[in-house]
Amino acid sequence: MKIDKHTVILSAILVILFGMAVVFDTLLFAKQASELLKDDVIRFHVLANSDSAEDQQLKEEVRDAVMKYMEPFLDTADSVDESRRLLLKNIDAMQAVAENVVTSRDKNYDVRVEIAQVQFPTKKYGDIIFPAGVYEACRVLIGEASGANWWCVMFPPLCYVDASMGVLPLEGKEELEKNLTDAQYKIVAFQKEKPYKIRFKLLEWLEGVLN
Fold it and tell me: What count of other Cβ atoms lies within 10 Å of the Cβ of residue 168?
């Protein structure tokens, strides 16, 4: 059977247009989801000087020291505003803690701690997912800050919950449900909502293609 070339071209155009629509819809969903979340979330972001094994190890030691210092303060916070206030109040102390770790490892890297608006890609935390977007973050920048980074969520307080098994423990999910609205929780705990799951799978695939 002879296939008309105009039919082939039209079919190809329709496939391309459909693909573009899927991409646009997926990116729009991610933007809307992050917009809904961002005012009630503070991320924690530690950037290593480089990707060398030594610098990556140093990043982890700095992370642990800063988290250990902040845990008793953040443990008392019951809102994103209170968490922000405590972080700002202790920003110099956090920098001193990080600098002490760096110095103890005989490194002369500059260290900077800041509260900033930061663009994040889609990130998983166990079986919880946070959509790509701009979020407020407490950042620790070590040296050139050009190495692989580490992140968690300071509020709601997920930094102190172990998600190493790939599933966020009940304690962490209870913190999320307590501090987020129903709509916000449905976004991050997307495995319970089929439409969210499909869209986030598309988003992960799209980000992989773009990267």
Answer: 21
Nearest to 177 by CA among 26, 40, 15, 9: 40
82's tokens: 């209170």
Task: Pinpoint the alpha helices (H) of 39-142.
Answer: 53-74, 80-89, 91-104
Three-state DSSP class for residue 99: helix
Strand partners, 47: 141, 149
Residues in the chain: 211
Q: Considering Cα of 188, then 38, then 134, then 176, what sign does the dihedral take?
A: negative
With CA atoms as reference, report the closest residue to 25 among 210, 203, 208.
203
pLDDT tens string 160-194:
655 444 445 555 566 666 666 666 666 666 544 44
* Contact assessment for residue 39 and residue 116, using Cβ atoms and an 8 Å cutoff: no
Residue range 59-97, pLDDT digits in tens: 999 999 998 999 888 888 888 899 999 999 999 999 999
Instruction: Give pTM, 2 decimals.
Output: 0.67
Tokens encoding 90: 């202790």
Residues 6+ apart with CB under 8 A from 68: none
- CA distances 59 to 104, 164, 198, 201, Å, are 13, 18, 34, 30
Is residue 92 helix, strand or coil?
A: helix
